[in-house]
Amino acid sequence: MISTIQENRIKMLQIDTRYWAWFAILLSAFIFGFIKVFALLFSIWWNSYIYSYGFLIPLVSLYIIWIEREKLKHIQAVSNFLLGVPLLVIGLFMLISDTHGSASIQVFSLIIAITGMVLLILGKGFLKVLSFPIAYLLFTVPFWDNLTKRLDLPFQNFTALISIHLMQFIGMPAYRQSLYIELPNVTLEVAKECSGTNNLIAIIAIAIPLAYLNLRSWPRRLLLICGGVVITILMNGLRVALIGFFAYHGFSKVLHGPYHIFQSMSVSIIGFILLFAGVWILAKGDKSAVVQPAPSTFSSQQQISFQWDKIKYPLFLTSGILILVGIFNNLYR
C-alpha cells in the first residue's frame, strides 16, 4: 500500500515537472518567435513620451491573470483546434509577411497569436477568463496617436477655456483669443503639444484596469473611465493656467526646461490621485454580487495529471510552430 502511494507521488511529480518544463519551452519558443516585435516595442516605449506608459501594460495584464488564478484552477482544458489553429496561423502570417516593418501590424499579430495559442492549448473556458488581460494588450499597439490627432483641436479649445477661467478667477488680467492667451507681459499659445491628448490614452489605460478590478457594475466602470477623460482635460487646463501664472509673475525659467517638466509631473500626479479617489468613492457603493468559482473535484496534483493529458499534444504543436517561425523570422529575414 505504501509502495503504491509512493509510486503515485513519483508519477505525479514527473508529470508536474514535465508540465512546467514544456510551458518553459513554450514561453521560450514564443519569445524566440516574437523577439523582434519585443525589441521594437521596447524601442518605441523608451524613445516616445506618448507611449512611455507601454512598459506597464504587460505587467498589468500579468497581474490581472494572477488575480484571476483561482478561476483558472477550476477550468478544464479543452483544446480547440478548430479556432485556435487558424488564429495562430493568421497571427504568425501577419508577422512574417510584414515586409515594411509596421509596428502596429506586428503587435496586432502578437495579440492574435496569443489568442490562438490560448484557444489551441487551453480552450474557450480559459480564453473567457483571459480575454480581458489579452485585450488590454491593445494599449501596447502604437497607433493610438493617429486616433487622438482628431481630438487635438477640441482639447486645445477646452484647455484654453479652462485655463483662462482659472487665471481670471485668481485675479489675473488674462484675455483669450482663440487658442492664444494674452497677458500683459506675454502671449501664450495652446499648441497641439499642450492639448493633453498625449496623456489621454495613458489615463484611460490606467482607468480601465482600475475599474475592472475594483468595480463590479458596468455603469460605475464607465463612469470612472469617463471621469478619467474629464480629469485629463481639467488637469491640462490647470497646467496651462500655472504656466500663465508663473509667466505673469516673471518666472520665465519655468516655461521651459526641468522646471516645466517638474510642474507637468506635479499636475499629472494630482490627476492620478483624483482618479484613485474616484475608484474609492465608486467602490464604496458598489454592492454587485461577486460570483465565486465552484469548488474543484480534483486535487492539485490530480488536476495537473488530468490537464496534462489534454494539452500536451497541442502544446508540442504550438511550440514547434513558434520555433520554426522564429528561425525563419530571425535567421532568414
Please describe what this structure looks like.
It is a single chain. The chain is mostly helical and 333 residues long. 72% of the residues lie in helices and 3% in strands. A three-stranded antiparallel β-sheet has the order 1-2-3, covered by helices on one side. α5 (81-97) packs antiparallel against α6, α5 packs parallel to α13 and α10 runs antiparallel to α11. The relative contact order is 0.13. Mean pLDDT is 82; it is low at 10-14 and 289-306.
SSE blueprint:
Layout: H1 2-33, H2 35-47, H3 56-67, H4 69-73, H5 81-97, H6 103-121, H7 124-135, H8 144-148, H9 152-169, E1 175-177, E2 180-182, E3 187-189, H10 197-214, H11 218-248, H12 258-284, H13 300-331
Antiparallel strand pairs: 1-2, 2-3
Concise overview:
The chain has helices at 2-33, 35-47, 56-67, 69-73, 81-97, 103-121, 124-135, 144-148, 152-169, 197-214, 218-248, 258-284, 300-331; strands at 175-177, 180-182, 187-189. The chain has 333 residues and is an all-alpha fold. A 3-stranded antiparallel beta sheet has the order 1-2-3, covered by helices on one side.
